[in-house]
Amino acid sequence: MASGRIVGAVKDHWTVGRVAELAGVSVRTLHHYDEIGLVRPSARTAAGYRAYSAGDVEQLREVLAYRRLGFGLREVAELVGDPSTDAVAHLRRLRGLLVERRDRAAAMVAAIDRELEARAKGLTVTPEEQLEVLGARLYDAIGGAYTATRRTEPRIAAQISDALGDARTVLNVGAGTGSYEPGDREVTAVEPSEVMRGQRPAGSAPCVAAAAEDLPFADRSFDVAMAVSTVHHWRDPMAGLREMRRVARRVVVLTFDTDEPGWQDRFWLTRDYLPEFAAVLAEFPSLAGMADAIGARAEPVPVPWDCADGLFEAYWRRPEAYLEDHVRRAVSVWTRVGPEAERRAVRRLGDDLDSGRWAERNSDLAHLDAADLGLRLLIS
């Protein structure tokens, strides 16, 4: 049995030793994955040894790929255990993550080469040129990580669906990878980022490359125009909202409330570890102003404690998640506050989790099922 393949009583299975050799991991690792339920071999040999089917090997491939991208075991278990995601969807997700890393690395190398060339010639390198090494447009820098952690949260999706009412035609502005697009209506998507458009799953709504401020549609072309967690990225949010109002009879927008005094203290992460968040939204329009622009009322959107969509506030009762690099990479806030603030926040949060200070400060959160952290649904 030099190949490690088992025939006979346990047909078309591979021994644990052979699988470990092929995967480049130890047998001990495979035993641990079995014990915690992450990858359980589907058979045993007559002697009682673990035997892996082709399906088991496929699942192991997904687990190891996510692990090598920096995911923790808990996050990996959630990803591979998602019943709505098949092998093809996992491959697309992994490809997006890897392409994002490749492209970001290539962009950084190119920027470093340009700076080295300039310095070799004795030229002055401007601050803008120095910062170019960090990447290009925001969505192109963070987009590849979206499919890993930014999944549709069913409870938020239900609230959005209720807001859409009986609309038959829907324009999704700033659509990203397609989260929250209703499957029971005729949807047209608008997304300016090529990285985001490239990660939209097969069979999703047709997507137009355009910006919210200049929608290429005639007046009142749609029953509803929707925008989910995207307005804060637009060059001119008010102009984009007016465009949505122009092309649709109604508008539904998931956004953030900065009108309430002390709003930045609603969330422990911004209150205690990342005060720079307030500056990120310093120029953001008021909720009242956005509501007036589209003739809307505001409705609170609670964030469930186990929110499936890895938005900035998603892990308010799971603070360890913010220590994971892949979680932060899929949230624009971390890119916008800068690496120094990010490193400081992560270090202090880690220290407080280790010492128990975080748990002591936030003991009132332990039994909450959902929290109002400023998300608002504007409904016209």
From TrEMBL:
One of its GO terms (molecular function) is S-adenosylmethionine-dependent methyltransferase activity. InterPro entries: DNA-bd_dom_put_sf (IPR009061), MerR-type_HTH_dom (IPR000551), MerR_fam (IPR047057), Methyltransf_11 (IPR013216), SAM-dependent_MTases_sf (IPR029063). SMART domains: HTH_MERR. Keywords: DNA-binding. PROSITE patterns: HTH_MERR_1 (PS00552), HTH_MERR_2 (PS50937). SUPFAM superfamilies: Putative DNA-binding domain, S-adenosyl-L-methionine-dependent methyltransferases. Residues 13-82 form the HTH merR-type domain. This is MerR family DNA-binding transcriptional regulator. It comes from Streptomyces antnestii. The lineage of its organism: Bacteria, Bacillati, Actinomycetota, Actinomycetes, Kitasatosporales.
